[in-house]
Task: inverse folding
């Protein structure tokens, strides 16, 4: 067999040490391209009973801020020779990171098989075939970086917002701190008969209902984080009272997932600006929230440098939103970009997210 990198691959040789559970012997040195080929060739041998006749494929998938290699499980339909439209998926980039840490390919294969099996069970349990039923009630918005996602944005309907892009997603399951959803691409938008303007008009209403915006002082957020672990008296000593105009405010939503979209609801910003009596600077701390401060508090360029430093040192690539800082004018009730940070892209990669699967609807 020849790998996608053009190098010959011997599955028996490559699997010998990891499969028997032995460590070392070079098992940690299998390079990524070989890893992909081995997983593809072996994974069906690790699936439980009931997956006979299935196939697997590896394909590049454009995700927010990055392109990943997805291994997808193709499941045949009983009534025909075709495969199901919805497929369990796992990202091999993250599995390779786990493999490099544990050095055991057998353990990695078992984890991939378990994740794909869980994914298929979730598909059956939640009847994902009804994915497009009442789609108007499931549409919501997500903010992503325009420059970083140029290739992705060629495939989806979107609306520009400063240096960002508003894209649309369909929720399949909403949990307290996790949202399962599918990105609306151009083919899917055509299938559901909605133009970009239709998507926006629907999603701007739904997003606020599904994910109610929140504006909290940093002190409130800290109190919430420490509330279960520290008596009130001790918390008061830790979080000191500050003048309103000196506080930082977290703009997000009740689920704290994709909460940066709350900045699109200008009335929330206006209430805060009126409360402080000043314009605002808005710092995109992640796709999940923005930090607002009084415009009198500091220079926008200094704040932008802080945002960039945090993006590149603390946040996973898929959670980064922008390196810029925005200005909200209290009188004009308008948001503009306050800085011109040279680094428009976000892909100086640091930590990676945990392994997850997601379902995919073919369009």
Result:
């Amino acid at each position: 067999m020849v790998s996608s990198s053009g190098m010959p691959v011997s599955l028996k040789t490559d699997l010998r040490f990891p499969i028997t559970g032995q460590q070392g012997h070079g098992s940690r040195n299998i390079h990524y391209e070989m890893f992909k080929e081995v997983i593809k060739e072996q994974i069906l041998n690790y699936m439980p009973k009931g997956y006979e006749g299935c196939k697997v494929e590896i394909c590049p998938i454009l995700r927010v801020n990055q392109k990943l290699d997805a291994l997808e499980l193709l499941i045949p339909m009983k009534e025909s020779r075709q495969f199901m439209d919805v497929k369990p998926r796992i990202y091999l980039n993250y599995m390779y990171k786990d493999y490099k840490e544990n050095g055991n390919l057998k353990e990695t294969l078992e984890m991939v098989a378990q994740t794909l099996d869980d994914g298929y069970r979730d598909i059956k349990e939640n009847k994902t075939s009804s994915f497009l039923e009442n789609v108007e009630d499931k549409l919501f918005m997500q903010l992503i970086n325009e420059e970083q996602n140029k290739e992705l944005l060629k495939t989806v309907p979107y609306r520009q917002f400063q240096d960002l892009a508003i894209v649309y997603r369909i929720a399949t399951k909403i949990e307290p701190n996790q949202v399962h959803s599918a990105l609306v691409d151009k083919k899917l938008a055509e299938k559901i008969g909605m133009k970009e303007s239709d998507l926006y008009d629907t999603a701007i209403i739904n997003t606020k209902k599904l994910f109610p915006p929140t504006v909290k002082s940093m002190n409130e957020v800290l109190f919430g984080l420490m509330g279960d672990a520290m008596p009130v008296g001790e918390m008061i000593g830790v979080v000191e009272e500050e003048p309103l105009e000196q506080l930082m405010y977290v703009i997000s939503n009740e689920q704290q997932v994709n909460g940066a979209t709350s900045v699109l609801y200008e009335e929330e910003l206006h209430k805060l600006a009126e409360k402080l009596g000043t314009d605002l600077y808005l710092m995109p701390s992640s796709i999940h929230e923005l930090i607002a401060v009084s415009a009198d508090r500091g220079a926008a360029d200094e704040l932008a440098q802080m945002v960039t430093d945090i993006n590149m040192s603390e946040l996973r690539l898929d959670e980064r939103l922008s390196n810029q800082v925005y200005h909200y004018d209290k009188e004009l009730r308008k948001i503009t970009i306050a800085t011109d940070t040279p680094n428009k892209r976000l892909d100086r990669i640091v930590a990676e997210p945990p392994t997850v699967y997601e379902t995919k609807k073919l369009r």
